[in-house]
Write a structure and sequence with these properties.
The chain has about 110 residues and is mainly beta. The chain is about 5% helix and about 30% strand.
Length: about 110
């Protein structure tokens, strides 16, 4: 048990001052000229035209030459096997992808 003097001392102890909040850092503005990474229409089943499919399996990546597809450059072709969820027809979806140009280090 505490003595009455201890309890009184605890009540009269000075409280620590409240901490000040740090100033909020200004947010970096978004760059409006950044293009989206993926601009692909959903693939359709050649038999029924449905866009529903099972999960991709058997992905193959082909390092292609520098070409363009629909006016956009690409440097690899990715082929993925999938199956239509509506009619169970198998198909291979292709996507054309490109790495962004490498950044040169500043000197």
């Amino acid at each position: 048990m505490e003595s009455p003097a201890m309890a009184t001392a605890r009540k009269t102890a000075k409280k620590k001052p409240a901490r000040k909040k740090a100033a909020a850092k200004p947010r970096r503005p978004r760059r409006p000229n950044v293009e989206p990474v993926a601009d692909v229409e959903p693939s359709r089943c050649p038999a029924c035209g449905s866009t529903k499919r099972t999960a991709y399996a058997g992905t193959r990546t082909v390092q292609a030459y520098q070409g363009s597809h629909n006016g956009k450059p690409y440097d690899r072709i990715i082929r993925r096997r999938t199956q239509c969820a509506a009619c169970l027809q198998f198909r291979i979806d292709r996507s054309f992808e490109a790495d962004p140009p490498a950044k040169r280090p500043k000197r």
